[in-house]
């Protein structure tokens, strides 16, 4: 019996990290919310997440909030005449049966006026607001400063670090 309990606990311990990186809310499935660590004194940071819409209707990401910063917005990086420019993205449509990926050099959650540095290994809550699904609270995991968000194998490599710099939208 003791061996069974130990085996069960070991199995649960392995399953929990993967489950912690995936959250279902209505028709939306949010994968691996993560941020890069920031150096001491940094006033800005960013977080990333993959959002899948398994429903028959589009939804729209309308905003974000977090207690770690004075202001939180959804931003978009774009190439304007050879220069990377960052600006507020406005509402982001999550197409029916589609995916939008917030990732480095594209769409991202921007934290301005950080109240403290983002430290590797820490977690913090972020609330994303959707037009139909409403508010969804995520736990963001802080990775190393040079992190890519692809550890633990909980994301595939499709579309990572490729594309037009505006995030990735995929239809299923």
TrEMBL record:
Biased composition (Basic and acidic residues): 161-172
Superkingdom of origin: Bacteria
InterPro entries per record: LpqE-like, Lxx211020-like, PCuAC_sf
Segments for region (Disordered): 146-172
The keyword Signal is assigned to this record: yes
Keywords: Signal
Signal peptide (residue range): 1-20
Family annotation (Gene3D superfamilies): PCu(A)C copper chaperone
Pfam families xref list: PCuAC (PF04314)
Protein name: Copper(I)-binding protein
Source organism per UniProt: Dongia mobilis
């Amino acid at each position: 019996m003791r061996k069974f309990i130990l085996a069960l606990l070991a199995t649960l311990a392995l399953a929990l990290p993967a489950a912690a990186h995936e959250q279902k809310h209505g028709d939306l499935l949010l994968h691996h919310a993560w941020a890069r660590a920031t150096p001491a004194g940094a006033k800005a940071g960013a977080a990333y997440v993959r959002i899948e819409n398994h429903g028959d209707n589009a939804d729209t990401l309308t905003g974000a909030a977090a207690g770690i910063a004075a202001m939180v917005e959804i931003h978009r990086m774009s190439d304007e005449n050879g220069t990377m420019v960052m600006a507020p993205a406005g509402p982001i449509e999550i197409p029916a049966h589609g995916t939008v990926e917030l990732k480095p050099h594209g769409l991202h959650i921007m934290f301005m006026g950080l109240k403290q540095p983002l430290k590797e290994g820490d977690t913090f809550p972020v609330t994303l607001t959707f037009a139909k699904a409403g508010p969804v609270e995520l736990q963001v995991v802080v990775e190393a400063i040079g992190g890519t968000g692809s550890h633990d194998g909980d994301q595939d490599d499709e579309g990572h670090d490729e594309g037009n710099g505006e995030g990735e939208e995929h239809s299923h």
